[in-house]
Design brief:
By secondary structure, the protein is α/β, with parallel strands linked by helices. It is built from 17 helices and 14 strands. The chain has a 5-stranded antiparallel β-sheet with strand order 2-3-4-8-9, with no helix packed on it. It is globular. The protein starts with a strand and ends with a helix.
Length: 454
């Protein structure tokens, strides 16, 4: 919904069911706060005498779908800038949940809402984060069988033994489904009912609908599975017989606790910690002496080196925008909760140095050890095996003519942002179950769907 707000002196305004707080002193002194876990992105335009705020970017008066930022599109599709998530807007400010915008006469700054660091370990922090849903009686855990959802299901089972808890997971005929086997094993151990849903090809890469779906300003791959989200939400609603329930989703945990350690984080500090350099070499199967040479020859190359603090901030930002912009519009009695993008979990991640986060076998070692020490289970030392590539390939086969038509008319090829021949050849192979799925292909199809729906 679009709101037009006049610059009145010393006013406090609450919008969108109190998710957005606006403090106005005058037109040159304004603060907007988007609450943690609002699951909403707000778009803000500042005008001479008023500001516009909406939770749908295409409602803003400044929006024009013909005004695509081609530089950002190019950066996104060619992996130049992973934060090119503002294709349709130029001057508009984007405020993700857990963030605050400050405007004064000279500039606008967007940063995190202030929060306290409790200096707790991951187990303690996740336990406290779950207090946000302590009043809920019915809980549905999105359970992939991966590390984050495993931490969630152990925590929820211990913290809320008297609540009505169900886990749900998914399978795809033709894939290995190792995550499914793992999920079944854990749910059996914890005596939690597991609902198993099949991801059918007709649930993937389907048309978007503004009335049902939340549309971001960039082609998030999550949009490819929104029909499946609609399906599993309906199944859960049936399970809980129309009563209130909360879905717990572990998205963001891999960001907050550093699932990947990029090569360009290596710097001189590794030369004084030989064991960690050896760990990195073993973890990523990189030549040990080649890594040393890389550090010695490129210590001052600012284009290739990033600080751990900047890397941390980048991942937190990424987790926030992904959990703010990609879901379906839920009815009033259904809520979704992302525990890993709470102040408690983000603060927890800040208690660890880069060296704490990996060893020779695992990333996120600090997270794994914390839960192992609490629950004495090797389930936290498993590396995810499952994948859903087969379902996407079947969807491409099912919709091949439609997707071929989309590719033929795509402006991305017209502007020479991507190689048309490569993606068409890749789509042909994918449709017969060969060569996986190119991320550019999925993102391109989603982008064209976004343009069509808005």
């Amino acid at each position: 919904m679009l709101h037009k707000i006049q610059y009145s002196i010393n006013s406090k305004i609450l919008l969108f069911k109190d998710k957005l707080k606006i403090y106005i002193n005058n037109k040159n002194n304004i603060i907007l706060e988007n609450s943690y876990n609002s699951n909403t992105t707000f778009y803000i335009d500042f005008h001479e005498d008023y500001l516009e705020v909406s939770d749908h970017f295409y409602e803003l008066n400044s929006f024009s779908k013909s005004n695509l930022n081609l530089d950002q599109v190019n950066s996104f599709f060619n992996n130049i800038d992973l934060h090119s998530n503002n294709f349709f807007l130029k001057e508009t400010k984007i405020l993700y949940h857990g963030c605050k915008l400050k405007k004064n006469k000279n500039n606008i700054i967007i940063d995190e809402i202030e929060r306290k660091n409790y200096k707790l370990n991951p187990v303690q922090s996740l336990n406290i984060a779950m207090e946000y849903i302590s009043t809920e009686q019915n809980i549905a855990i999105s359970f992939s069988g991966g590390l984050d959802s495993t931490a969630i299901i152990f925590t929820v089972k211990e913290k809320f033994p008297d609540k009505n808890i169900v886990a749900f997971t998914w399978k795809n005929d033709g894939s290995s489904n190792e995550d499914l086997k793992h999920a079944i094993s854990i749910c059996n151990d914890l005596s939690i009912q597991l609902i198993i849903l099949e991801i059918k090809p007709e649930y993937l890469l389907q048309e978007l609908d503004k009335e049902k779906h939340i549309i971001p300003t960039y082609p998030s791959t999550y949009l490819a599975s929104l029909k499946f989200v609609e399906y599993y939400v309906a199944q859960l609603d049936k399970y809980f017989k129309g009563e209130n329930f909360t879905i717990i989703n572990g998205h963001g945990g891999d960001h907050i606790f550093f699932e990947t350690i990029p090569l360009n984080l290596l710097n001189y500090s590794f030369l004084f910690n030989w064991n960690k350099l050896k760990d990195y070499s073993s973890l990523y199967s990189d030549n040990y002496f080649k890594l040393i040479k890389s550090i010695l020859l490129n210590p001052f190359n600012t284009n290739s080196k990033i600080s751990f603090e900047n890397f941390r901030k980048k991942l937190v930002y990424e987790a926030k925008f992904q959990t703010s912009t990609t879901f379906i519009k839920l009815p009033e009695h259904i809520n979704i909760f992302f525990p890993f993008v709470t102040p408690e979990m983000i603060s927890c991640s800040e208690n660890y140095s880069l060296f704490d986060t990996f060893n020779e076998k695992f990333t996120r070692i600090h997270f794994r050890k914390s839960f192992y020490n609490k629950f004495n289970s090797q389930k936290f030392f498993r590396i995810n095996k499952g994948h859903m590539t087969g379902a996407y390939q079947k969807s491409i086969k099912l919709n091949y003519k439609k997707f071929e038509k989309i590719l033929d008319s795509s402006f991305v090829f017209e502007k020479k942002i991507l190689d048309k021949r490569f993606l068409i050849d890749h789509m042909k192979l994918s449709s017969i179950g060969v060569n996986g799925i190119a991320p550019q292909l999925i993102n391109l199809l989603i982008l064209e769907m976004i343009i069509k729906v808005i």
